Batch of 2 targets.
Target 1
Amino acid sequence: MKDETLGQVFKRYRESEGLKIAQVEKDIKISHRMIEALEADDYRALPDEIYVKNIIKTYGRYLSLDYNKLLALFDSVQVQKNSNLPEVKTKPIRVILTPQRVRNVIIGLAVLMLVVYLGWQLNNIFQPPQLSVYSPENNLATDKNYIEITGKTEKEARVYINEKEVFLDVNGEFKATLDLQKGMNLIKISAAKKRSKENVVYREILVQ
């Protein structure tokens, strides 16, 4: 196998077994065109490399040949083929800056920044305000008939406790006292800006 090509090896062993290509095609279910191309070392007529290796493996097993040696022959052909490829030289890309291009870049950046700013502003307008309820904690049990509610939101927001507006101080904090009834009380604390969605926090208070 040393001085022979891969195709010559296959052809010699096939002929030594007295096999015709038509018989090989029938036995291993590989097209006679593929077998002829392989034996002729015509790799341009063969499919992708991974499929060629499968053909080599199947054909080699059929002729009881060492697949590793066959694969080494095939790889040597691929290395030689790649080394014969002309070197592709890429031309450096020259970027010529003209006053008009600089102006267009500046305008494009300005438009992009404006779009980002408008998107940020719209998000602030429609996004629900932050709402933190300091007290009471949820699922609280008490024997009192009132509860103090404290919390904080954004200064531009309006806060409602059970749909009744409460006032904020300069820091956006609020405090209110709510009367409770015997049993389970559900308290709704909500905050919203002028055009935003509502941010809602619920508290369940059990009066024993």
Target 2
Amino acid sequence: MRPTNNTPLVKKQCYFCSNKISTVDYKDTVTLRRFMSPHAKILNHNRTGTCPKHQRMVTKALKQARHMALLPFVAA
């Protein structure tokens, strides 16, 4: 059994909602790398804290950036 911890869980804030960013641009690779693992996989919303609307935008932008060769498909 795991010991109980009395600290409440803090839900992460969506990066885009908190910074009032309405769209996710595929050319902004610095921001997009935030939502990738070191192995170049797309991180899920539980790890990043993005809302479902922006998570879909991030996924689409990452795939588009990979297709345009701005981001890697796989990290070596």
